[in-house]
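Hi everyone,

Forwarding the result from last night's run.
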Amino acid sequence: MEQYRLTAPKQLNQTICLPASKSISNRALIIYALSGGKHLPQNLSECDDTEVIINALRFMPKEINIKAAGTAMRFMTAYLSVMRGTHILTGTERMQHRPIGILVDALKALGADIKYTGATGFPPLHITGKSLKGGLLSIPGNVSSQYISALLMIGPMLKDGLTLQLTGDIISRPYIDLTLWTMGEFGAEAEWTSADTITVKPKHYGDHEYFIENDWSGASYWYEMVALSNNPDSEIRLTGLMDGSKQGDSVTRYIFSLLGVKTTFETKKEGIPQTITISQTGRCVPRLEYDFVNSPDLAQTFVVTCAAKGIPFHFKGLSTLKIKETDRIEALKREMRKLGFVLHDVNDSELYWDGERCEPSISEGIDTYDDHRMALAFAPYALVTEGLTINNPHVVTKSYPRYWDDMKKAGFEIEVL
């Protein structure tokens, strides 16, 4: 098992070229493929999740292995359902234990030909693509937004379009809106027609050049580093981000403003990629309560940040964390205990820390559970304690392949054990 031991610099002062948005890249690729286009989207993410989609679309083998990429599994399931040909869609052992039954049932209700080759409700899937009629479809709103996005993106390809009715509570709405926005960028007519219904007209996508914004999720870890730096003059400049971004995780800038981090854009023009500067304000809330239902991927970042700064917290809207790359709620509880913090969970959807401490066992190193965001979120804790060790650090390639190189550029020393 490889390990990295991290030593933090005394001050942060560097410009970081962030990776491209994985969320936008994956959507743009599927839409590009559905359009039959010739212009591959520009500034595509270099992460594992995007790479498996690129390879799948480029080679279209009989068996498509998307490895650990949950987004690719969901998006490709819908894509293959409307494209001619027969394929087996599979992934890692963990992926074969991540549920996909709700999406498969929805697609089958539209007429898709999908069979399970193993356990019912889980990959691998045997998919024979064909023309689908479309029409009215109902799906719970509290499932992964990727199921909903997968259905929406094939909507223009359906003979009668798609009227998608979301029942119950709707979670991760910004990711749904990001999908609708990206579809619109390629000429689709898709919009909310009521509080719980989205209508997609049967209109084929257009083909044109498309440039992808950089990743606000990746930016969150640099906000965390600035928040945890002991030097009030620390600042980081991050490239390629938009004011008024459609990425759900752009809420990073607002939440971190409560934790003493200020965001300054180069210009006040919205909708253009630019460099931002993040710096300390010295003003923090004494306690943070937040509902992450619309941005669950940020939960790990804020758990570590708040605890490290001694800020009690209560976070809600975390139900989807149980079915991510790992059970993130349990993983956070275990690894935060190593750092000396006792977290508690409620109803498999909430985490809180009221200041309770325990004896740390940091020498064991932080386990990453094949989950990129465990490594990404815990690494900045090196600014708080000496000798922080990250186990299996290469998991970051799933979303931020250059993370460790960027940390070195910012002055961190990384010792391979």
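The mean pLDDT is 95.

Cheers,
N.
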